[in-house]
Amino acid sequence: MKKLLVVAAAALAVCAHAQTYPSKPITIVVPFAAGGPTDRVARDLAEALRKPLGGVSIIVDNSAGAGSSIGSNKVAKAAPDGYTLLLNHIAMATMPTLVRNMPFKVDSDFEYLGLINEVPMTLIGRPDHPAKNFKDLTGWIAQNKGKINLGNAGIGSASHLCGLLFQNAVATDMTTVPYKGTAPAMTDLIGGQIDLMCDQTTNTTQQIEGKKVVAYAVTTPKRLTTPALKDLPTLQESGLKGFEVTIWHGLYAPAGTPADVLTKVNAALKVALKDADFLKKEEGLGAVVVTDKRVEPAEHKKFVAAEIAKWSPIIKAAGVYAD
């Protein structure tokens, strides 16, 4: 009888929690540095989520490092009550291969809440780069083998992954320069300390529009319609057949979070993804907000599993690790 009472009390507590959720501020952990493209998506989404979650405060917490595994582990080990969430990008699919001795499992230590957006990438160069278009760039690369510096936002970052593919595509090894986030990498690119970088449109569009960098191409199969990027060719049409990289972002909660809470967050996410201000901000940065079935938790998880299978052999072939 006593055991039944304990179980009943626990069930009532969970139910009461779900009914009152959220009753205090929610933290969205971003496993990358402040000022970068994923941080920007998180802050825009946090604002869009506030209204459908009853006006609650939403705090963005940047916990960068180790291929995003530090911030991700913070959420995996957090109380499963819906007040600590994770916003991560394609790293959810690369960490299982990229990070050795990872302290959590991507497939079982998180509840999947839905995909948010897909972000194209752009290949850009320092503002004084002698090559002003992709054809000239290929010639410059051929003439400067062993002297090219390719920046990225850190091992496991989107820019790092794109850089790996680009080096393979042009059959040229470059000196990879990892930074602690996209912001310092962009600063050095604009300052001429590095030659090239491949990064998300959420971080490069304003720099391209302001002519602070040289833009060569986008990584999508078709040209983009964003005003600042619409004249850029794709890498495929520029000669790199099959070159396609799109960085996606998703939302996660610790495993064991009550089902009713997950339902509330997923419902709020769907509303946020239709928010006019959020859509305008994403469109202006070249990002495409997800509207298909991947906004559903089960489809989100299935999609990530397929991405793990896609990126694992690429990372293994490159022999890089984020520990």
UniProtKB/TrEMBL annotation:
Assigned keywords, A-Z: Receptor, Signal
Pfam families assigned: TctC (PF03401)
Keyword presence, Signal: yes
Signal sequence interval, chain numbering: 1-18
InterPro entries reported for this sequence: BUG (IPR005064), Bug_dom1 (IPR042100)
Keyword Transmembrane helix found: no
TM region(s), chain numbering: none
Family, similarity comment: Belongs to the UPF0065 (bug) family.
UniProt xrefs under PANTHER family: BLR1237 PROTEIN, TRICARBOXYLATE-BINDING PROTEIN
Protein name: Tripartite-type tricarboxylate transporter receptor subunit TctC
